[in-house]
Amino acid sequence: MLSENSLFSTNRFTSLRNNCPICQGIRHDCRQNTDLEITHCRHDVSSVPGFQFIGQDKIGFNMWVANDGKTTETTKTTDSETRRRRSARQESQKKLNDRADRSVNSLNRLSIPDRDRAIQELLAQLDLSPTHLQNLRDRGLSDNQIERGMFRSVVPWQSVNNINARLAGVSDGSDGTGQKLSVSGSGTICPIWDVSGRIIGWQTRFDRSKDGKYRWPTSRNQQNPNGATAHLPNGEMPLSCCRPTTLLPDPQNSTSPHQSINLAEGFLKPYIAAQQIERVFIGAAGGNFSASPQTLKTYLDTLSTELSTKLVRLYPDAGAIANFNVLRQYQKAIALVTGWGYEVEIAWWKQFDKNTHADIDELTAAQLSEITYITPAAFFSLCDRDMQNRLADRPETRARSIG
Q1: What is the pTM of this model?
Q2: 355-393 b/e with 16+ CB inside 10 Å = b?
Q3: Using one digit for the tens of pLDDT, what is the confidence trace for 310-324?
Q4: Mean pLDDT of the residues in the chain
Q5: Domain that holds residue 275
Q6: What count of other Cβ atoms lies within 10 Å of the Cβ of residue 101?
Q7: Is 342 inside any structural domain?
Q8: Per-position b or e across 24-44, b if 16+ CB within 10 A of its CB
Q9: How many domains does the chain have?
Q10: What is the pLDDT of residues 41-87, one digit of tens each?
Q11: Residue 158 and residue 94 share a domain
């Protein structure tokens, strides 16, 4: 019988960093028990699509398992005392989360137009440092593409003025020191755009990545437990619609040669890829597209009409084929997209290893010309046998033949 201690043996854990399916990278200490497939995350959210809350571990992490409609082996085998303690903690946590969520829903989630306006006003007060400008140039962006992307530099606790205090990441200045951005280190703000070209959020790409290279803005902390987070008004995390500067939003454009809608992990990466191969990309933190199904469907349906296509292409990161957590996110995204009537292809340039192979935004022109497009079934068949067996045991693959 499993004890609570056995659920928190550190040699079973892998750090999720910004790939956490629960908080989408808002926290930096999330981890997964790779033996029991339990995600441990301290983010204060009461429900997550596709996951079931099963309690807290002994140091206060909320524990989540993928919800496939069946009782998990863990809950079957946990002793009665652990179940009792979990139940009490769950009830207490649920009350706190529900109260916080009600406050956030009613007060702290700006509408999309208000969010766009506030972020535009924020970015207008910031500049891009020469160092960060050169970093973006080194990533292959032209000065015009950098300007269009509206990248900005920030320093720790960046001072700002007269920004809507309901915007996530902005302090209200009530401590007498004036408004500031709640950022603990220097870095580059990477704006996130919706399918209509409005800025709906951002992530900060930190110069030092000890606690995760990319982070969401948040105003929620111990002193302000109901502070605004990056969540959209519908409760989902933002997805970014990254367009090449040669293809700005134009619903009347029915002759575009950009015949596919493309998916890639992150926000800076798909922006760079969109410029390099001149196609529209949708980006998601950690590649977790399925955590924002309403937003994803809106983007796909809008772009499908605009570009006259039902073809969606997924560009896996180098080494993703050996990463179970990432592959699970791909499974979920593919199941969603194909369920909506889209055809899915996987971009493949033999990117088996993250240490020796390049991501889509790092490919040379010659390497880009060598990309082939394969079916999801062909892609998953490239995984080793153990990985295939683990993936085949997921509800997404049992319910649907992916390919």
Answers
A1: 0.75
A2: eebebbbbbeeeeeeebeeeebeebbeebeeebeeebee
A3: 999 999 999 999 999
A4: 84
A5: 240-399
A6: 17
A7: yes
A8: bbbbbebbbbeebbbbbbbbb
A9: 3
A10: 988 776 787 888 887 777 778 888 887 544 444 444 444 555 555 56
A11: no
If asked whether residues 71 and 190 sit together in one domain, one would say: no
Q: Are residues 277 and 350 in the same domain?
A: yes
Straight-line distance from the first to the last Cα atom of the chain, in angstroms, rounded to the nearest whole number: 39
Q: Is residue 103 pLDDT above 70, yes or no?
A: no
Tokens for 325? 């957590």
Cβ atoms of 234 and 294 closer than 8 Å: yes
Q: Distance between CA atoms of 6 and 74, rounded to whole angstroms?
A: 11
Q: Is 366 contained in some domain? A: yes
Per-residue CA distances from 16 to 71, 125, 261 (Å): 24, 33, 27
| d(C-alpha 375, C-alpha 215), whole Å | 32
In a domain, 249, yes or no: yes
Residue 223 lies in a domain: no
Whether residue 180 is found in the same domain as residue 130:
yes
Do 67 and 195 lie in a common domain?
no
Q: Does residue 11 surpass a pLDDT of 80?
A: no
Residues whose CB falls within 8 Å of the CB of residue 48, separated by 6 or more in sequence, listed in order: 21, 22, 64, 291
Is the pLDDT reported for residue 177 higher than 80? no
Overall size of the chain counted in residues: 403
Residues 334 and 351 in one domain: yes
Q: Please enumerate in sequence order all residues whose Cβ is within 8 A of that of 266, keeping only pairs 6 or more positions apart, or say none.
A: 214, 283, 284, 285, 286, 287
CATH number at residue 186: 3.90.980.10
User: Are the CB atoms for 189 and 151 separated by under 8 Å?
Assistant: yes
Note the pLDDT tens digit of each residue in 346-370: 999 999 999 999 999 999 999 999 9
